[in-house]
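Work through what follows:
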Amino acid sequence: MMPQQLRSKIDHATGVRDIQEYFRTLENGRPLFSGSRFETLGAENKIDPNQIMATDLVAVSMLSVDVPAQASLGILETYAEGISELLSQIPSDLKFEDLTRESFDKYLSTGSPADKLWALLRQHGDRWNVGPTTASKILARKRPELIPIWDSVVKEVCGIRSSAEQWEIWFAAFHDGSTEAAEFVDKLRSIKTEAGQPHLSLLRVLDIVLWRQGKLGISSSEQEQS
């Protein structure tokens, strides 16, 4: 996918409606979509940005994926120190829209701390059934401003072959140096502001709008985010 193709999928008015619908609350007080609590679950407590906690794994379940028991034990116990060390190497205040080519390569490219953390979560050598969707959601919970979510719906909407190329495609869409890229970033900012969800990262705005677009194209019924 070319950057302009991704950017063309985002319409301001539709995006605002999609975000507002996604955060709609039912009469009984529960959210229409559990994913609307992904970022804020547990926010009332102090959350260590460099440690994956049980609350983070519960938050991931808000996006309709479950972290297997063996993986949870590995993440929370066996590999906790290594995970924290890698997270500490990824700035918690760095936003995707502020990346330069140099900072992208340093933090997100092959061999970077995020890439190593991705590999650790996937556990290719001793599989514990954490796929790319679940791994991306764990990383996005800890670095919501920097790590995009990957799932099958976004894959289909965008025509991306695999999660391996997503970060580069998103970077190009945000940072190819064109006027269109700057306008795209401004549009995402405007969507979240007008939708009344200023806490959202631009990556999450993009994720929700693309996901809603894909789901509405696949089915007319409301479904939980997968």
In short: The CA atoms of residues 26 and 32 lie 6 Å apart. DSSP finds twelve helices and no strands in the chain. Residues 218-226 have pLDDT under 50 and may be disordered. The chain has one domain: 3-218.
